[in-house]
User: Fold this.
Amino acid sequence: MPTREDYLRQPLERRLARLAGTADELTETTRNRSAAQLAGRPETASWSATEIICHLRDVEELFRIRFHTILALDDPKILTFGAEPVALAAWGIGGPIGHPLDPDRWAEERQYARNDPSQALSAFRRHRAETVALLESLTAAQWQRGGIHLRLGRLTLGDWVASLAAHDDNHLAQLERALEGRG
Assistant:
């Protein structure tokens, strides 16, 4: 499975093709599966296929907001989940409240397990199409705009797309494992 670093070595067109193909891969992987099969967790601590689709749907909105922010502002700081506590303190994040981008928190609060997988996939497909359309409309100069990742530093839009492409691959593999009953 390609990593973010692998995608960074690939042409931008390849990264965009990865993003454009994810919804179809999700559809194909989940085709002819019952809602019960998609809702089954391989292990208590592992997500079901439905929960993974919901996660991808919600992360898609987050990344599109990041992309719009990078286009609108000069080198904005971008909130990320894996940042160090000292970096998060400037955002007012820490202590008992927890991190607002915590994927497990989202799964619980947004009731991923109770979502209809076909509706979640339709929403993901719609959001991803909007993201790809945005990215395909960018000029060469816009692709060089960047945002400050709290752990990795300045990343151009192309770098952020590499992260999203690797994120897709990671969760597609996770989804396949979940459907095979492996955590």
In short: The longest strand covers residues 146-149. The radius of gyration is 17 Å. Strands lie at 77-78, 146-149, 153-156. Residues 4-179 form a domain with the Four Helix Bundle (Hemerythrin (Met), subunit A) fold (CATH 1.20.120.450).
